[in-house]
Design brief:
By secondary structure, this protein is of the alpha/beta class. It has one domain: TIM Barrel (Alpha-Beta Barrel), CATH 3.20.20. It is about 40% helix and about 15% strand. Strands 1, 2, 3, 4, 5, 8, 9, 10, 11 and 12 form a ten-stranded mixed β-sheet that branches. Strands 6-7 form a two-stranded antiparallel ribbon. A hairpin with a 7-residue loop joins strand 2 and strand 3.
């Protein structure tokens, strides 16, 4: 066959410098958000078994971890809290004495340039593990909204730069926006967990945050994995309620949703590379079945290629160090 009869695409792949020059999607450390689990106490760093390399940390250790992230170029963290005590209404979520609020203040004092985002939900603080007030076997949407707003305000009062409601209650963004405005935090942005799916990939997180439901599941308020158009409606609703950034969660199994959202909406788009996605790569890497570093970067690149502007990932520091090596 005459070589002139087909395109010579390999010509542009033969040289590493040319491949780099023609790179269509470049990961940047500035796009990473690093999730951290904070607990009460001092000097606590407890490994999370299904998430090798990820720990529960007391506030003092979380400050050190945030500084480590900053040194690697990761300038933003997302905080989740695990309380000592839980109750039916998740009252600890808005307490100024809980780990999240104290971690926010401590991180901002030690590392003012770190951009601190807080997860706003009740599941870690309720004794039943659901994301809101339970009435019988159902989560009461409207009774939950004031508690979410109160929690968001407590985070802003502690110094949070942004709040991120994840409970998937209808109207949560509007309730939080109103609460922040009334409390004098009109400049605090809201990142909505807009298209959050009821996913099997949350398993390791629920161990890390001790937030598994004690009965039933969350499919009555999180989206079913087979839904695509509904995700766009959820995103539209969050934007109408005042969300400044939208999110798709999980990322890897929902790249099509990320792509569709990126094409349809001009609002900044985040994607959450969740615990189960992290754990699969970590476990396979430990077993020697895959090259962990290459797999991490390939997954993060796929999320960027799908259209995400921001990537929430437990691999943030690792990926930043890989990028720094070139």
């Amino acid at each position: 066959m005459n070589s002139d009869q087909y395109p010579h695409l390999r010509r542009l792949r033969r040289n590493s410098t040319l491949r780099d020059m023609l790179n269509e999607n470049r990961l940047s450390v500035s796009e990473f958000i690093y999730p951290m689990f904070v607990v009460n106490g001092t000097g606590v760093r407890t490994p999370i078994e299904p998430m090798p390399g990820v720990d529960q940390m007391s506030v003092d250790i979380a400050v050190e971890e945030a500084q480590k992230a900053m040194a690697a170029g990761v300038k933003s963290v997302l905080l989740f809290g695990i309380p000592d005590d839980k109750d039916a209404t998740g009252s600890g979520a808005s307490s100024p004495d809980e780990a999240v609020q104290r971690a926010v203040a401590a991180i901002k004092m030690a590392s003012p340039e770190t951009y601190v985002i807080t997860d706003v939900c009740l599941c870690e603080y309720t004794d039943h593990g659901h994301c809101g007030i339970v009435n019988g076997n159902d989560v009461d949407n409207d009774a939950t909204l004031p508690l979410l707003a109160q929690t968001a305000v407590s985070h802003a009062e502690a110094g949070a730069d942004m709040v991120a409601p994840s409970a998937m209650m209808d109207g949560q963004v509007a309730a939080i926006r109103e609460g922040l405005n009334e409390a004098g935090f009109s400049d605090t942005p809201v990142m909505g967990y807009s298209a959050k799916y009821a996913s099997a990939f949350y398993g390791p997180f629920r161990i890390a945050a001790d937030s598994a439901p004690q009965f039933g599941d969350r499919r009555a308020y999180q989206m079913a994995p087979n839904q695509g158009r509904e995700a766009m409606r959820e995103i539209e609703a969050d934007l109408e309620e005042g969300a400044d950034i939208i999110m798709v969660k999980p990322a890897l199994a929902y790249l099509d949703v990320i792509k569709e959202a990126s094409m349809r909406f001009d609002t900044p788009l985040a994607a959450y590379n969740v615990s189960g996605e992290y754990s699969m790569i970590a476990a396979a890497g430990q077993a020697g079945w895959i090259d962990r570093e290459r797999a991490v970067m390939e997954v993060l690149t796929s999320i960027k290629r799908a259209g995400a502007d921001l990537i929430i990932t437990y691999s943030a520091i690792e990926a930043a160090q890989i990028l720094a090596r070139g």
